[in-house]
Amino acid sequence: MLLNLILKMEKTVSEAIAYRRSTRVYKDEAIDTKKVKQCLVNASLAPTSSNLQLWEFYHVTDKTKLKQLTAACFNQSAAKTAQQLVVVVARKDLWRKRAAANIAFLNKVYDKEGLSERDLKRKAMATKYYKKLIPTVYADFLGIFGQIKYFTFQIIGLFRPIYRQARRSDMRIVAHKSAGLAAQNFMVSMAAIGYDTCPMEGSDTLRVKQILDLPRGSEINMVIGCGIRDDKGIYGPRFRIPFEDIYYEV
């Protein structure tokens, strides 16, 4: 009965998107950790390049850690008044592990007798993708391989379409784009249940990594304040460039 009531109270996707605002001051009112965690489950279902899921989510509820992270976020109100924080982390360095996980999944899915020729072909193509193509794109050494691949692909691109984002900086962007998609899933999910968020890029990312004891290869995508909006937490009416100025039908 309670679950049905909660589901009825949830906003539609369009309602949640319209409701979501970057909230910079929160009420001193607790939010349900389990509900926030479920919104992070939704985040993990976001689209991701090559299904590598090069992300991690750190759900911070510990008061000491919250205080430390607030300082690392320059004591801005969106962090200082937040009931909880979520740190979205890009993990480009985990590409080998995540590629292996995809291969293991493929082996499990296709581990049965009597596979059709189509299924056998699909398994072979996908396995080759993770064993051959992904290492070709992601493998690098001090940025040297990336530059070699970049110039090689540019030459090939003179004759046919080819993937050109091969440098280490390019792959960092790919990982952060996927992490950003996951963060948006999370924030819309929070809005759907009446919780508020504020994505913060303003932070000392090195200190954030140290506070969370993150490995060197990890990168902070954003820190997200979580809570219930205070009346003064929304800084003015929403402004967007007129849609006709940004929309082009081709």
Model description:
The chain is an alpha+beta fold and 250 residues long. Mean pLDDT is 93; it is low at 1-7. A 4-stranded antiparallel β-sheet has the order 1-2-4-3, sandwiched between helices. It is built from 10 helices and 4 strands; from the N terminus they run H-H-H-E-H-H-E-H-H-H-H-E-H-E. The chain is globular, with a radius of gyration of 21 Å. It has 2 domains: 10-94 and 182-233, 3-Layer(aba) Sandwich (NADH Oxidase); 95-170, no CATH class. Helices cover 49% and strands 11% of the residues.
Task: Report a brief summary of the structure.
It contains ten helices and four strands, in the order αααβααβααααβαβ. With 250 residues, it is α+β, with helices and mostly antiparallel strands.
Secondary structure layout plus pairing:
Elements: H1 2-9, H2 13-19, H3 33-43, E1 55-60, H4 63-72, H5 77-80, E2 84-90, H6 95-109, H7 117-138, H8 144-156, H9 168-192, E3 196-200, H10 205-212, E4 219-227
Antiparallel strand pairs: 1-2, 2-4, 3-4
Helix pairs in contact: 2-9, 3-9, 4-10, 6-7
N→C terminal distance? 49 Å
Task: Supply the number of helical segments.
Answer: 10
Q: What is the domain tally?
A: 2
| Rg from alpha-carbon coordinates | 21 Å
Instruction: Provide the structure class.
Output: alpha+beta
Q: Given the C-alpha coordinates, what overall shape results?
A: globular
- Give the fraction of residues assigned to helices: 40-55%
The total beta strand count reads 4
Q: Mean pLDDT across all residues, rounded?
A: 93
